[in-house]
Target: Phosphoribosyl pyrophosphate synthase-associated protein 2
Amino acid sequence: MFCVSTEIGAIMNITKGGLVLFSANSNSSCMELSKRIAERLGVEMGKVQVYQEPNRETRVQIQESVRGKDVFIIQTVSKDVNTTIMELLIMVYACKTSCAKSIIGVIPYFPYSKQCKMRKRGSIVSKLLASMMCKAGLTHLITMDLHQKEIQGFFNIPVDNLRASPFLLQYIQEEIPDYRNAVIVAKSPASAKRAQSFAERLRLGIAVIHGEAQDAESDMVDGRHSPPTAKYVAAIHPSLEIPMLIPKEKPPITVVGDVGGRIAIIVDDIIDDVDSFLAAAETLKERGAYKIFVMATHGLLSSDAPRLIEESAIDEVVVTNTIPHEIQKLQCPKIKTVDISMILSEAIRRIHNGESMSYLFRNIGVDD
Model:
């Protein structure tokens, strides 16, 4: 009798009362992550109906009371990104107007995260999206591997940016038998910091790919290699002269580091348009790498990416389930999935119980 009561008590202590878990996405394939999290927490999924009207308007109907409760809304990004965003915003606002105590968004992949810098006459869309979420009523955000950590500053609410690297590192150690003969590769200097983090934890070497494929004909057309016509250009006043910037010129592709006879593991945060990954794989093959792996947190794998990967020199692409990609896996057996529901469920439990989140960020430096 004592053993039974202890076991029941242990289950009830996983989370205190007053927690409601919703899946904001109407797509059934996107609810798999939500179900995994609910099973780990030992709670039932909240009752909610999300659907599209005939005119494509999104309608959300919450079918249970959320008054005075901690509401966690899990949203994974489907192919229709804008519908995904509207589902989330409408559900958050519905919980706010239903007097929820707190509304925490669990968005493993933050959409529009690549548009986080000003480009010519464009806009910082991720800042706009952050403002919309806060205005709708979000009080806390849980996400994973933001494209740029500075996106956290776009919110005026707490943001927990979790890391998927422990799960990817574990995959390398357990699923690549001779990983000690591997080298971590950054496909561009911009991703060198991430590659360095992986290499230091695995006690491996690092290589960086720099430059671009040279095409003399296209270079002649766009004039990138032409010298500037004038050293100075007049500006506000005829007497004020501003030095003219020299146009950039990327050298031919080079690999900084030895990959000959080694396993090459390319690491990045997002894999969507795979052209740059395919070019990197070809370059590494030419330099003598005998196996090529790609490790990324978010596998968007849009359009014909699965087919291109299947036909490429890449041996395996490993991504997490922050984004559902079951269809892509059917098209390309090289795509493997790592489950990260464990860290998301633990983050939810700690926030709901008012516990410290620092345990989830142990051994993570400022630059990681």
